[in-house]
């Protein structure tokens, strides 16, 4: 059997990239069918195939790393660069929505009554549930750091407890936001205020759900002994993503919720 | 009181049956053996029969879906017959 004379990972041929592309095609076409022709079959098909591809692709990465040992320090360095670049791209994504918010709120048009919040809009009180949500996410940042320290110190019990607590805090945030959305006196259709509010906070909420899912997968892997005290990049990537979600919320809170009221 | 609490702790830790104890043990070495077996299988099929099934389902959905998209695109690009 030939052995490689380098520290990089030459992956086995895999069908997931092309199936992932097909899933993206199905999902986007499905959106069009749903918007314009009132049919959700294609969209459902697209989302299911997207889910299947993600599960199998990431399952294979766990196999290649934890079970086959392909993730050398060189490979891990590349993964670190990759995750940082991905998070940076997400930061730019949110930057766009913040730009839209400031564009509309710094110089409110006559149609809005020349003021921000616009005439007739009753904004949410930033000192009520939004403040609680801020505390929840900040606390979850502490617990995820506690989990990381526990992993590096080899303390399995504390790591499991801290990571579980982080995930529960994430669920609590999501539940409170869902309730806020339901109870809000304004909707997405209420002028540019509603648009900027719900699109920015909505995408943030989606990222909280993604981050919570990532952390949950890490919890399963932690329980199944996949992580060692000096090799646990999957967890570190999830923790970075979680801190990013927390920072985005802090900006949302300070600008849209607080300054914008 | 502390001694009875400690006894309670020991008893609750000892009552895990053999079957569920296996689930709390480190089974990574078994997985490492399975996935490092020299059988020529690519990683996406190396886990067993379930891998193949999942692969075929994903391929089925993707191929069928792509075909359906092309069909709908054709239909959408044809002019609607006016009566």
From TrEMBL, chain A:
Q: Give the main localization category.
A: mitochondrion
**Reaction(s) catalyzed by this protein?**
4 Fe(II)-[cytochrome c] + O2 + 8 H(+)(in) = 4 Fe(III)-[cytochrome c] + 2 H2O + 4 H(+)(out)
Look up and give the membrane topology term.
Multi-pass membrane protein
**InterPro entries assigned to the protein according to its UniProt record, in alphabetical order:** Cyt_c/ubiquinol_Oxase_su3, Cyt_c_oxase_su3_dom, Cyt_c_oxidase-like_su3, Cyt_c_oxidase_su3-like_sf, Cyt_c_oxidase_su3_a-hlx
Does the record bear DNA-binding in its keywords? no
Locate the transmembrane regions by residue number: 16-35, 41-58, 79-102, 129-147, 159-177, 197-220, 240-260
User: Which part of the chain is the Heme-copper oxidase subunit III family profile domain?
Assistant: 4-261
Q: Where in the cell is it found?
A: Mitochondrion inner membrane
Q: Which keywords appear in this protein's UniProt record, sorted alphabetically?
A: Membrane, Mitochondrion, Mitochondrion inner membrane, Translocase, Transmembrane, Transmembrane helix
MF term (GO), any? cytochrome-c oxidase activity
Provide one Gene Ontology cellular component: mitochondrial inner membrane
Check the record and name the PROSITE patterns matching this protein: COX3
GO annotations under biological process? mitochondrial electron transport, cytochrome c to oxygen
Instruction: Name the family.
Output: Belongs to the cytochrome c oxidase subunit 3 family.
Q: What does the UniProt function comment say about this protein?
A: Component of the cytochrome c oxidase, the last enzyme in the mitochondrial electron transport chain which drives oxidative phosphorylation. The respiratory chain contains 3 multisubunit complexes succinate dehydrogenase (complex II, CII), ubiquinol-cytochrome c oxidoreductase (cytochrome b-c1 complex, complex III, CIII) and cytochrome c oxidase (complex IV, CIV), that cooperate to transfer electrons derived from NADH and succinate to molecular oxygen, creating an electrochemical gradient over the inner membrane that drives transmembrane transport and the ATP synthase.
> Record's PANTHER family?
CYTOCHROME C OXIDASE SUBUNIT 3, CYTOCHROME C OXIDASE SUBUNIT III
Q: What is this protein called in UniProt? A: Cytochrome c oxidase subunit 3
Please name the source species: Anser fabalis (Bean goose)
Q: What is the lineage of its organism?
A: Eukaryota, Metazoa, Chordata, Craniata, Vertebrata
């Amino acid at each position: 059997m030939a052995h490689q004379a380098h520290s990089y990972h030459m992956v086995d041929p895999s069908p997931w990239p092309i199936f992932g592309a097909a899933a993206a095609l199905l999902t986007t076409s499905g959106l069009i069918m749903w918007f314009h022709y009132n049919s959700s079959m294609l969209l459902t098909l697209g989302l299911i195939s997207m889910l299947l591809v993600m599960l199998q692709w990431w399952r294979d990465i766990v196999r290649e790393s934890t079970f086959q040992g392909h993730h050398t320090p060189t490979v891990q360095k590349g993964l670190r660069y990759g995750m940082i670049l991905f998070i940076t791209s997400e930061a730019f994504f949110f930057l766009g929505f913040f730009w839209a918010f400031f564009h509309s709120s710094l110089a409110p048009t006559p149609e809005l009554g020349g003021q921000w919040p616009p005439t007739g809009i009753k904004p949410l009180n930033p000192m009520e549930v939004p403040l609680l949500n801020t505390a929840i996410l900040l606390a979850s940042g502490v617990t995820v750091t506690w989990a990381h320290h526990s992993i590096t110190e080899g303390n399995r019990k504390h790591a499991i407890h801290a990571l579980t607590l982080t995930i529960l805090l994430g669920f609590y945030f999501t539940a409170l936001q869902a309730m806020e959305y339901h109870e809000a006196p304004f909707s997405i259709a209420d002028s540019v205020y509603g648009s900027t509010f719900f699109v920015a906070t909505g995408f943030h909420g989606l990222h909280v759900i993604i981050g919570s899912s990532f952390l949950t997968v890490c919890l399963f892997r932690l329980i199944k002994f996949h992580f060692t005290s000096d090799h646990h990049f999957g967890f570190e990537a999830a923790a970075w993503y979680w801190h990013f979600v927390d920072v985005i919320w802090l900006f949302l809170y300070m600008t849209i919720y607080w300054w914008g009221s | 009181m502390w001694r009875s609490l400690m006894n309670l702790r020991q008893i609750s830790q000892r009552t895990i049956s053999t079957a569920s104890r296996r689930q709390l043990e480190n089974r990574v070495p078994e997985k490492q053996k399975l996935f490092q077996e020299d059988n020529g299988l690519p990683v996406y099929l190396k886990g067993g029969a379930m891998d193949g099934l999942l692969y075929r389902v994903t391929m089925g959905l993707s191929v069928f879906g792509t075909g359906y998209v092309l069909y709908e695109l054709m239909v959408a690009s044809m002019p609607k017959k006016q009566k």
